[in-house]
Design brief:
This protein is an alpha+beta fold and 258 residues long. Helix 10 packs parallel to helix 12.
Length: 258
Amino acid sequence: MDTVARFAELVGRPDPPLDRAALALAAGADADLDTGRWLRELDRLAEGVTSLDALVDRLFVQEGFAGNVSDYHDPRNSLLHHVLERRLGIPITLAVVTIEVGRRAGIELEGVGMPGHFLVRAIDSQVLLDVFHGGVELDDAAAEALFRTASGAGPEVPFGPHLLATAATPSILLRMLENLRLIYRARRRPDDLEWVVRMRLALPGAGLPDLLELAGALGDQARWIDGARVLEEQLPEAPPERAELLRTAARALRARLN
């Protein structure tokens, strides 16, 4: 089973396991990734942890996990095995580590998809943690300040619980993939962009722009026929307007062969 198929199989389950799905995502960049090794590392990090304070101390003091402030857009920050190995990440991958270590220790945590900066929340106490900055606890004022700094939103944008919604596993994976999509697109790495978009297509809400980007990534690898076929395979069930867009894009790719 290739890496995209494995990811699709995991996220197709009713309740996909976050740890395994995040590692399956990372395997897109490293097909030789040893899933068992990194699951055992998450197990090890949870040993002896009995409280939220102890979890924060274990990860951000004893083990030295931290936000990568010097190279935020390094793609390794979005790949769970690299985060576990390097002890560096971005808010969402550090959140995955925290949630999964907490789960193993019997501490119920959830992701919070605040725009601009992902957070972690303790389910029982509603405590918000900023795991990018050492697991510091945020009150409402601090969370709002962080939101405005991270997103650039001005005072005209209201802040409240609607911006602190729980992020289910598919939403977390989607946000991780979107981070990688932006990075690989900017760095003109169509081979990596291909697997990212293929995984994106395995999650709910994918649409025509994703198909067009996948076809474009294939074309950028001189795989024009493959790109055209990706689009043409959608024609039998496409409504007329969408079908015409697909045909036009497919013809443009096939024309590259002339």
